[in-house]
Amino acid sequence: xxxxxxxxxxxxxxxxxxxxxxxxxxxxxxxxxxxxxxxxxxxxxxxxxxxxxxxxxxxxxxxxxxxxxxxxxxxxxxxxxxxxxxxxxxxxxxxxxxxxxxxxxxxxxxxxxxxxxx
Length: 118
Description:
- The chain is mainly β.
- The strands form two sheets. Strands 2, 4, 5, 6, 9, 10 and 11 form a seven-stranded mixed beta sheet that branches. A four-stranded antiparallel beta sheet has the order 1-3-8-7, with no helix packed on it.
- The chain is built from no helices and eleven strands.
- 33% of the residues are buried.
- Helices cover 0% and strands 50% of the residues.
- A hairpin with a 6-residue loop joins strand 4 and strand 5.
- It starts with a strand and ends with a strand.
């Protein structure tokens, strides 16, 4: 059982930046960020695998960067040039099965809210 703790959410203005952190209680083979807003399906945002491969949703490519600090068991999501459509609850997940964009199972954190205002 892996526990994930997210932090770093908040309220910002359009164009500003935030950095989310996800710290795991144990080793993980994959880590990703997913977001959800009321009335919409959960959206995969970015993922990083232990061997270094990273993936991004088209909507955040070029603006968001996922990175890992293995010693700290922490994965970061640097979010730049934020837009109102980036608003949502951001969840960290690990060790899912299947495609990163459609994860099945795995471990999930409690989420951290990101609100971007124009």
